[in-house]
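ok, trying the design again with the full structure, not the truncated one.
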């Protein structure tokens, strides 16, 4: 439970702009309103981190860039199809960033990194795969099921992320506990041995 609470705060904070955008779309606020609100929140998150002198995480920059791109496209073109395709581009960018080893280390307590760092790296690639799958699914829904897209974008991204997050935390916790019981603190066995 401690690991879950430690990780959930930064994850929600990093994605807050996108979460606000998606939730507002899901409740029918409209694309312009959702985009403006998401942009304000994403700018506030990055501004808050900069004001505190903290390094801005990659997902925070991506959240800000994605809502700014949606805001510009929506306000300049008025074409909702661009906004519908935009998550595909964002998911591809996020998935590519997630292919970098160690990006998940921010979401785990530093003292646990030596114990389950290899598991976190593997989950980093699983997260990337989910982003690539989400990119494809978003494009299919936007092109072939356009009327259902607002419902899809309001539910699927958050549900899939929270679902994978729950599995991720449970698996990391289980493996970490198993390694502690075996006394594997100094010499970790490879994940395949789990």
């Amino acid at each position: 439970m401690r690991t879950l609470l430690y990780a959930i705060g930064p994850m929600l904070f990093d994605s807050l702009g996108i979460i606000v955008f998606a939730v507002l779309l899901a409740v029918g606020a409209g694309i312009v309103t959702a985009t403006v609100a998401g942009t304000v929140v994403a700018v506030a998150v990055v501004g808050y981190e900069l004001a505190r002198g903290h390094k801005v995480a990659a997902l925070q920059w991506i959240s800000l860039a994605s809502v700014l791109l949606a805001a510009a496209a929506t306000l300049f073109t008025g074409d909702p199809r661009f906004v519908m395709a935009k998550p595909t581009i964002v998911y591809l960018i996020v998935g590519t960033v997630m292919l970098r080893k160690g990006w998940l280390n921010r979401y785990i307590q530093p003292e646990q990194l030596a114990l389950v760092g290899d598991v976190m790296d593997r989950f980093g690639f699983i997260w990337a795969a989910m982003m690539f799958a989400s990119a494809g699914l978003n494009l299919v829904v936007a092109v072939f099921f356009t009327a259902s897209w607002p419902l899809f974008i309001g539910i699927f991204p958050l549900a899939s992320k929270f679902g994978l997050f729950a599995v991720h935390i449970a698996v990391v916790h289980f493996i970490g506990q198993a390694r502690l019981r075996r006394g594997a603190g100094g010499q970790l066995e490879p994940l395949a041995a789990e």
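Keeping the full-length input from now on. Residues 188-194 have pLDDT under 50 and may be disordered.
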